[in-house]
Amino acid sequence: MLLQLHPGLMIWTIITFLMLVLILRLVAWKPILALLEARERKIRDDIDTASKNREETEKALDDIQAKLASARKEANEIVAGARTAAEKVRDETIAKARDESRQLIEKAKAEIQLEGEKATQALKEQFAELAVQAAGQIIGKTLSPNEHLDIIRKTIGDIN
To answer: What pTM was computed for the model?
Structure first.
């Protein structure tokens, strides 16, 4: 009984189905299509927005990388400039120290020469005085201070 075909029931089922399709088409089809179209538009807009955001992000990333490269270049230039300045200061300091040491050496040499000349002069004077005293003892006479100075000067002149 269940597996038998009933033509009347079959006709009523077809009629009911067609009426349901017609009612759905008149009542629900347009709102369903509108919802689907709205959903499609939203998805398309979201994809476009995501694409624009990605492009903007890539552009911002490129800008940031360019700025970073520029900052690195500037930092390298600053470091190079600082190195150059430090080397210049070092070279100037070394040159100044060499000049000062050269001047100190020259001054010391001049002082040594002056002291040597003073010592030589003092030795000459002592030698002359000893010579005068020895001559005075040999002669057996005491010399006056003026005679004494004359003999010293003459002896120093002979030594020079």
So the answer is: 0.43
